[in-house]
């Protein structure tokens, strides 16, 4: 594994920290803390469970080897075994009807994934896609063994729908997409097609693959989000949607023999929650609904088609990341996680409501009981809009004290009480963390999510300052001891924080974030740029808006010490975004440290890099917020 390269820029002097370079020996207390932080960053997790067609096995992903790979586990529980191996992360595992496993591997990170099909022993592996440099996105199998996926091999700006056929062993383009979309489900000659109008606005169609005819299922005005699949046949579609409403609900659309489409029928909704996901039983007799309640998940069962709802016992963790229903409909397997525990697999008996743990992700050197659970706090922004966030306070925290504000990516993401080794590392160092959901976040309705679109981003940026001011006003954060950090769009928020409000933050960490919308649109993947105009602005017609929103043009205001970390193979937020910051601030004499991971893309998949990032980030904030 390659070693991350560290650069420290002080004035015009470039300092390079080489592997093995000597440094001052840490104290016993520092060494103990570093060992604890390292152990937290190494903690493994398990996710993406899928039952085999006969229900005897569960395929899933775990990074127990240091990099996410495909593993197998007996459905009744037992010792797991690895299916895939290698230096790069595997993702998106799915069972084929004949008992083989499909998954994706992205060399060095990025979107240039290879789709592979292998046996349960990891032998006789074949490639299902073009095995080239195209952006490839995982899909799923139909009951007849066809596998649908997306690839931009035809046009870099528009991934098309592709189908791999087991009869020929080849993939062919199912239909061309002039935009961004794909196949959500596949039955016989019909595909359930989704198409992105723009970010936050989708449509669904039923497409006849033989004739090319497609029927619009979701006519609407304004924005609408949706996801779904066919029912027992292609005349019924079950949808998670917010068509004509603010909150996500569970519903059904019926298609007559004449092609006439019914209006959506809402089968389940909650005033206090958003539908986050649903799982349909193989015979479509029932579904499991996963609700997002201010960031925590609750699960219930709904009988179909009558809509009778039955609550299920609370899960043993706050979050349900992914799940699957057994072929016989008697059990479900879920990846459950929370703020004080990494994701592990649990099996739910749907008759008794009993949860049985299937995996125990190792955490040597970490006592989970000592980890901190957050408290949900609500507060008002500069214009009276109610915001919320998760407050993590270290044991024996003396308020007001040092606090790091952490902003999620997206920007349509949502901060939830998940296990974060970097949060827990900061808490172990005596630094509190506040992770807000400012306007534009998901999970609070589509109106709230749209508040930061284009010029609305100026108000979202003001939320950053309003959040910092609230922490100080409440006596939680000490003025002069506030830090700010975030990844991807959260990195953009970080750079906004230190450029728009330069006297607010004493330290900042930008993780693979955007800084210049001009270079982002020019050098990100063409399809990413194409779908982002409604979110950020159109570079062809709104160049001034994008310039005014870009922190790169205000770096002359920065006085805050900055740590920048980026993956060299990031195709989502190209590494040029980091390079611009380091170059400009270095020339100005601002303290900036740059860590480049040569074997990562958008985020860190490999254990050594997770450890290095967590240690570097924590050490930086300890130094800058004067906790050493």
Task: Give keywords.
single chain; 628 residues; alpha+beta; four-stranded antiparallel sheet; 11 helices; 38 strands
Task: Please describe the topology of this protein.
Layout: E1 5-10, E2 13-17, H1 28-41, E3 46-51, E4 57-62, E5 69-74, E6 81-82, E7 90-95, E8 101-105, E9 114-118, E10 126-127, E11 136-141, E12 147-151, E13 160-165, E14 170-175, E15 180-187, E16 190-198, E17 201-208, E18 214-216, E19 226-230, E20 236-241, E21 249-254, E22 265-268, E23 274-280, E24 286-293, E25 296-303, E26 309-311, E27 319-325, E28 331-338, E29 341-349, E30 355-357, E31 375-380, E32 386-392, E33 401-407, H2 421-428, E34 432-437, H3 446-449, H4 457-473, E35 477-487, H5 489-500, E36 507-511, H6 517-523, H7 526-531, H8 533-536, H9 543-549, E37 562-567, H10 576-588, E38 592-597, H11 607-624
Parallel strand pairs: 33-34, 33-35, 35-36, 36-37, 37-38
Antiparallel strand pairs: 1-2, 1-38, 3-4, 4-5, 5-6, 7-8, 8-9, 9-10, 11-12, 12-13, 13-14, 15-16, 16-17, 17-18, 19-20, 20-21, 21-22, 23-24, 24-25, 25-26, 27-28, 28-29, 29-30, 31-32, 32-34
Helix pairs in contact: 1-2, 1-11, 2-11
């Amino acid at each position: 594994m390659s070693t991350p390269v560290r650069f420290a820029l002080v004035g015009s002097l470039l300092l390079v920290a080489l592997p093995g370079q000597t440094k001052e020996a840490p104290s016993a207390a520092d060494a103990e803390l570093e060992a604890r932080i390292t152990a937290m960053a190494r903690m493994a997790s398990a996710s993406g469970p899928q039952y085999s067609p006969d229900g005897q096995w569960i395929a899933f992903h775990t990074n127990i080897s240091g990099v996410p790979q495909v593993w197998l586990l007996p459905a009744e529980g037992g010792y797991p075994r690895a299916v895939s191996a290698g230096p790069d992360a595997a993702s998106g595992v799915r069972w084929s009807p004949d008992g083989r496993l499909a998954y994706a591997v992205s060399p060095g990170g990025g979107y240039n994934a290879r789709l592979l099909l292998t046996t349960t022993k990891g032998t006789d592996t074949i490639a299902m896609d073009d095995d080239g440099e195209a952006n490839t996105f995982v899909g799923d199998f139909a009951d007849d063994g066809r596998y649908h996926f997306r690839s931009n091999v035809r046009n870099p700006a528009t991934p098309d729908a592709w189908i791999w056929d087991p009869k020929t062993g080849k993939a062919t383009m199912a239909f061309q997409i002039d935009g961004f979309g794909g196949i959500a489900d596949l039955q016989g000659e019909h595909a359930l097609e989704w198409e992105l109008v723009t970010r936050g606005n989708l449509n669904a169609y039923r497409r006849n693959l033989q004739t090319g005819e497609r029927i619009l299922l979701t006519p609407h005005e304004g924005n609408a989000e949706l996801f779904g699949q066919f029912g027992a046949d292609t005349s019924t579609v079950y949808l998670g949607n917010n068509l004509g409403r603010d909150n996500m609900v569970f519903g059904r659309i019926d298609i007559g023999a004449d092609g006439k489409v019914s209006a959506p029928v809402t089968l389940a909704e909650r005033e206090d929650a958003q539908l986050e996901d649903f799982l349909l039983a193989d015979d479509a007799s029932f579904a499991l609904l996963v609700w997002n309640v201010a960031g925590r998940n609750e699960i219930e069962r709904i009988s179909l088609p009558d809509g009778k709802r039955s609550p299920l016992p609370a899960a043993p963790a706050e979050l349900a990341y992914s799940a699957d229903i057994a072929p016989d409909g008697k059990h479900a397997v879920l990846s459950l996680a929370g703020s004080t525990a990494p994701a592990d697999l649990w099996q739910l008996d749907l008759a008794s409501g009993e949860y049985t743990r299937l995996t125990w992700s190792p955490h040597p050197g970490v006592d989970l009981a000592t980890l901190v659970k957050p408290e949900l706090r609500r507060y008002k922004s500069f214009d009276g809009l109610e915001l919320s966030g998760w407050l993590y306070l270290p044991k024996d925290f003396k308020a007001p004290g040092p606090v790091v504000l952490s902003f999620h990516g997206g920007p349509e993401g949502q901060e939830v009480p998940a296990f974060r080794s970097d949060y827990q590392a900061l808490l172990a160092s005596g630094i509190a963390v506040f992770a807000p959901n400012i306007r534009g976040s998901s999970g609070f309705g589509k109106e709230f999510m749209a508040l930061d679109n284009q010029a609305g981003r100026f108000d979202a940026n003001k939320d950053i300052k309003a959040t910092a001011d609230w922490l100080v006003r409440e006596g939680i954060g000490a003025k002069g001891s506030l830090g700010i950090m975030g990844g991807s769009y959260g990195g953009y928020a970080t750079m906004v924080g230190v450029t728009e409000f330069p006297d607010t933050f004493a330290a900042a960490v930008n993780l693979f974030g955007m800084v210049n919308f001009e270079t982002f649109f020019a050098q990100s993947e063409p399809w990413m740029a194409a779908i982002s105009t409604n979110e950020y602005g159109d570079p062809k017609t709104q160049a001034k808006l994008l310039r005014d929103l870009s922190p790169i043009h205000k770096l002359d205001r920065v006085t805050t010490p900055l740590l920048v970390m980026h993956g060299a193979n990031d195709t989502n937020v190209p590494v040029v975004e980091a390079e611009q910051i380091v170059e400009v601030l270095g020339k100005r004499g601002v303290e900036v440290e740059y860590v480049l991971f040569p074997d990562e893309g958008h985020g860190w998949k490999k254990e050594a890099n997770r450890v290095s990032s967590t240690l570097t980030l924590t050490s930086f904030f300890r130094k800058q917020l004067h906790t050493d």
